[in-house]
Amino acid sequence: APCHFAFAADQAVPEVKTEAPEAPIPGAPPATKVRIVYLGKAYDEPVPLSLVDKVLTDNGVQGARLGIGDNNKSGRFLGQDFELVETIVPKDGDVAAKAKELLAAGDKLIIADLEAPDLLAVATLPEAKDAVIFNIRSSDESLRQEQCKPNLFHITPDWAMRADALAQYLIWKKWDRWLLLKGTAPTDEEYAKAVKRAAGRFGGEIVEERVYKFETGNARTDSGHQQIQTQMPSVTQGAADHDVVWVADTVEAFGEYVPYRTNEPKPVVGTQGLTATPWHRSYEQYAGMQMQNRFERFAKRVMTERDYSGWLAARSIGEAATRTSKTDVDSLRNYILSDQFTVAGFKGEGLNFRKWDHQLRQPLLITGARSLVSMSPQEGFLHERNLTDALGYD
Is 0.70 topped by the overall pTM? Predict the structure, then answer.
C-alpha cells in the first residue's frame, strides 16, 4: 500500500567544493554555510548502443553543480553560502558506511545518485532519520510504496509515472493495442509491470507479451547491421494485431535496434523510440531553451535527465532556503513538504512534492529522438485536485 507520512571508479573521488560563491555584497550579513552532499557510486554504466550518445563520467553531478551556482546567485543577498561536497564511492565500496561518516559530520542534506539497494541502505540508517535525501537516479516503485521512507524525496519519476505519461498519449491517439517486448533485467520487469498497470488505468490492451533473450552481437562491426536487420523482424513476427510495439529495455541491451526493423511497419515506444522523460535535449518550451544553452555553456555538453534531476534537487533546497530565510534541515524539510513550496522546472507550472510518497509532481515530455512530440498529462485525463497526479500512484 502507498505510504502516508505524518509531518510536524576503483578509487574514491576526493571531496571537492564547486561553484565558489561570488564576492559578498557590502553591508550584507555574514554568510551562513549550507553544505549539500552529492553522494554517488562508481557503477558500471551500460555503454550506449549508439555512437551518437557518449559515455559520460559526470552524469548528474553537473546538474547539481549548476544548481548550486543558481542558489548562490540569490543566496548572496540573504547571507547564504551553498557548498556542494561531491563524494563518489568505488563500485565495490560501502555506500552506507560512507553515509554514516557524512551524517556524523552533520551533513543531512544529500543528493543521492544511487541505485535502489544502496539508496535504501542509506535511508534506513538510524543516523539518517532526520536527513533530507533526494533520489535523482532510481525509478524503482517500491521506494515510493512498501519501501518508502520519510527522509526520501524522489526527483526522478518512477516507472508508473513514465508508463502512464506514454499510455495517455497513445490512448489520445487511439493507438490502444500494444505488443509488449521486454528484456530480462529486473528493471525491465519493473517497467513492464508499470505498462500493464497503465493499460488497466487508461483502457489500453496488451495483445501479447514477449521476452527478448538473444544477444545482439556487435552492431558496430562491418557486418553488424546485417545481423541486426535479419534478427529483429523475427522478434515481432506472427504477433497478434497491434498498433505499437512497446519496448521495456531499461539497460539499453537491444531496444535501440527495434525501430524500423519490426516485422510489420509499427511505431516503437517505451524505453526507446517514443519515450516519456522529465528532460530531453530537444525541449525548448517555457524557457527550456535558456536552460539548455546555459547548461551547455557550463558543462560543455547536453543536459541529460539525471543532470536535470540533480539541478532540481539543488534548486529545491535553494528555493526552500530563500523563501524561509532559514538553513537548518528541519525548517527546510517542513517548507518543502508545505503547500507553499514550489520549484520552477521549466514546465509551465511550479513543481512540488506529493505528501504521501514524497514524489515530485511534474509533467513529463513525450519525445522522439530529435523533437518534442507532446507533454503529459494529456488533455482530457483529469484529476480532482492536481492534474499531474494523473501520472503515477495516487
Answer: yes
Phi-psi sector, 182: left (phi>0), alpha (psi -120 to 50), beta: beta
Neighbour count for residue 122 (Cβ, 10 Å): 25
Q: Residue 365: pLDDT above 90?
A: yes
Give the side-chain half-sphere CA count within 13 A for 142.
9
Strands laid side by side in the 275-277 sheet: 275-277, 364-367, 372-376
The C-alpha atoms of residue 236 and residue 227 are separated, in whole angstroms, by 16
Q: Tell me the sheet residues that pair with 84.
A: 18, 36
* Torsion of Cα atoms, 106 then 110 then 116 then 121, to 10°: 0
Order of strands, sheet of 17-18, starting from the edge strand that comes earlier in the sequence: 17-18, 80-89, 32-41, 109-113, 132-135, 152-154
Closest CA to 131 of 116, 146, 117, 151: 151
Predicted pLDDT of residue 6: 47
* Residues composing the chain: 394
Asked if 337 contacts 328 with a C-beta cutoff of 8 angstroms, the reply is no
End-to-end CA distance of the chain: 11
Cα–Cα–Cα angle for 369, 372, 375, rounded to 5 degrees: 130
DSSP three-state, residue 134: strand
In contact, 81 and 31? CB cutoff 8 Å:
yes
